[in-house]
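Subject: for your reference before the review

Hello V.,

The reviewers asked for a structural picture of the protein, and I figured it would be easier to keep everything in one thread rather than splitting it across files. Below is the amino acid sequence we used in the manuscript, unchanged from the supplementary table.
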Amino acid sequence: MFGTSNFLMDQSWRNLSMRESWVMCVLLGALAWGQAAPATPPAGRPSAPGAPSKQEAAETTDTAASVPADAAVITVKGVCPAQPKTAATKAGAAKTDGASAKTAAADCKTVITKAEFERLASGVAPNLTPQLKKQLATVLPRLIAMSAEAQKKGLDKNPRYLETVKFAKMQILTQELQRTTQEEAAKIPDADIAEYYKKNPEAYEQYNLDRLFVPRSKQPDAAETKDNDKDEKLTEEQQKAKDEQEKRKQAEGEEEMTQMAEKLRARAAAGEDIAKLQKEAFEAAGMKIDSPTVNLPTVRRTGLPPGHTAVFDLKAGDVSQLINDSGGHYVYKVNKKETLPLDQVKSEIHSTRQNQRMRDAMETYQNSFKAETNEAYFGPVGAQAPPSPRGGMMHPKMPPSPTAPAAQPQGQPPASSPSEAPKPN
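And here is what came back from the structure prediction:
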């Protein structure tokens, strides 16, 4: 349906789409960014003006689905589609005077069908929302009109344009390679998933644990804190003596907590309630906050720090040896151990394998070439600065808790960060 008399030059539209695709990618970067899920507005704040409701969005989608594929969705009047350059058209163009050319241009139109528009939209970005499609429909007519005018002026033949297109094509092809690789990586047969599950049974073991945490050192009592806050002037010798005294007291407190941790571990192995032992540990350390929850009902191997993974070799009912690290002392008791069924972890394995396949493919592409640059032209390659060491003292804290995603007060288990899934054998 491109052009006059409902004449559609499909090939002309495709050529136009190819020429302008790089422009669309640049221009619609903002549209793609807009697809990210918006943050929930604070309570009481009105929605942005013009923002469609969920109901309006659903109605738009339903209406769009009912439009036939060959129906016109955009009509750009006054822009004639390019026609094949034949001897007849050249002769006709030579005979046409300026006034008749203007009349013909005013009469002709460029029509885009639903099928053509959706092909273009999917090329710009997959799964555009109805709102972003509206934005694309707003931008597209201007691009069609202005690019047609640029072609009349022969700008599509100048060297600057050709070099820009050459670079843009490389970018677009790289993005297309990444998209295709991602799609291929997602095609994982059920047999592959079953084999991965069979070869990595430990990755799908789930534990119900009790954890006892004993702080490494005692908290200073209120009297000590008050004394330290006093604005008193000490001589150099007095300050040195005070520092030595505090160090000795700190060391004595740490030794006392270590001995207590060993005793509490023995009592846990004898069958005493770990929740009760946890309360004693915090009271002995002078902690003024509630003791942490001891039960971790659904723990996987990625849910504990690397130094605590020996716990997963225990049998149900066993109590671990004392585990010491910079955060404090830990004792675990295994209440239950089970292997999750394949059906329950199938989607997880699919994601793991997809990520691994994608990473392997991209590494293959990245390692397939080696670049050399002319330092006389570009200058010497700058050496990368070494990463700066982290300053400050390390603060002891509880290890990650697989069941506590929210941030916790000091002395409580912070949120966990799962480790990378095992690689296929």
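For the response letter, the relevant points are probably these. DSSP finds 14 helices and six strands in the chain. Residues 391 and 410 are 20 Å apart (CA to CA).

Happy to draft the paragraph if you're swamped.

O.
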